[in-house]
Write a structure and sequence with these properties.
Layout: H1 2-9, H2 14-24, H3 34-41, H4 48-55, E1 65-69, H5 75-84, E2 87-92, H6 95-107, E3 114-118, E4 131-137, H7 146-156, E5 157-170, H8 194-204, E6 207-213, H9 215-230, H10 240-243, H11 247-259, E7 263-271, H12 283-299, H13 303-309, E8 310-317, E9 323-325, H14 326-334, E10 340-352, E11 355-365, E12 371-383, E13 386-396
Parallel strand pairs: 1-2, 1-4, 2-3, 4-5, 8-13
Antiparallel strand pairs: 5-7, 6-7, 8-9, 10-11, 11-12, 12-13
Length: about 400
Amino acid sequence: MTAAIADHWGKGDVYGLIVSALNKMSKPLEGLTIEDLAPVDHFHARGLPATVELADRLPIAAGQHILDIGCGLGGPARYLAKRFQCRVSGLDITPPFVDAANKLTALLRMESQVQIEHGDGQRLPYPDAHFDGAYTQHVTMNVADRAGFFAQAYRVLKPGAFFALTEHGLGPQGNPHYPVPWSADGTGAYLVTPEETRAILEKTGFADIVIEDTGAKYVAGYRMMIERAEKGALPPLGTHLLLGETALPKTRNAARNIEEGRTRPIQLLCRKPRQTGMQATTDLEILEELNKGYVDSVQNSDVAWFEKHLSDDFLNTNSDGSLVDRAGFLAQIIRPQAVRGLEPRKVNIRILGDVAIIHAKTVYTKADGTTGAGRYTDVWQKREGRWLCVAAHVTRG
């Protein structure tokens, strides 16, 4: 079945098809950019905009090693590597995609940042606890053993690492109309509901699962492509080049399925817990773990962590003296941080009944490469048995 799915996605000289389209556009291979390839090498629904939207949610820091499971032509891997200055390993079951991906990576001179190989996401060829994060885009619709797929991702991730996916989940109104991009007639399609996906991830051990419905965005993207195709206005380079002669009926059905509630596109982000095999039991141990999570999540722009651990009435005093509420703080966190290598020193945790105060010094590297120092004070309160951060104050020198 894996071979059949690989054949469904790509046969023949995929790289040659792309080069031919570039020639029609008078685009020389020398000096090719990531932006030049974006119309075709983000080979999933909505293309580059979906990749950018997902990347905006990912807590990736410079120098980290990220895994792309089902990387296709490598467009998302190259985009993330350039945007975050990280390393990305990708693998895909479709040999013509892997061949094209490596050739395109070489054209862009990104071999030191992006490595792509042939392989199966259900049998990842990497050691345990190897990656700082992993993602998969519109791959799981073709995965028969979803539990095994998630277990493999969990295995190769470091404690605290993120896992993200986008897919078309099964909707409440019955099976999809075919053909669609991931299956011509239902063969090799294994859609489940977002609720089932959440349950499997939780059983695997993932935590802090956040699911976002993206159906309206996908319908809009599909409708735009349908309109262009019906007018004969599709450009030489695009994902339709790889979908072939059935691109239009596949796209029509993809839009129709969402509108009829047969499929439900989602974007999902979760993480592998930092502690595995052992649970913090005392308030002090819990607060020590939460303090580490807070600092790590500031550094990595991990909005999902803060959404879980900040109270609704949370207030933060910034280093410039400004005061922001929970929404304002989350908006700050999602942006790339101005400092790196943030480390707490001399952490002092005082527990006063259902309230705890954490004081600590910090050291970090500024944007200009010099070392900075500061302090923070966080106030936590136990509400309904859970410690939530209700206030924070930060100073930086």
